[in-house]
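Example for reference:
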Amino acid sequence: MPHDTWPRYQSYKIVHAAKIVRVSEDDEGRKYLVVAPTEGAEEPFHTTELAMMDRAEVGGYAVVYHDGFRSVSPAEAFETGYRLMHKYEKGYDR
């Protein structure tokens, strides 16, 4: 899965997350997110979860939980509730 390469963040849960840099539409009018897992690297993030797309905003975060659930989070809520994990930390390889 593409999000496996995204940085990991920890609150009381460990999640994969990437900053939303753009909300786009494909040729059939379906919205998708463009995220930047690392600065300067962008990739599309497709989801069929319409509620997620309605809340998505540039600067917020696309979040994937360990069970595959996908969500979005406003930047302030995410940045005050999670911290970036380092590869050597316990739980990073989830």
In short: The chain is about 15% helix and 40% strand. Residues 75-81 form the longest helix (7 residues). The radius of gyration is 13 Å. The helical segments are 50-55, 75-81.
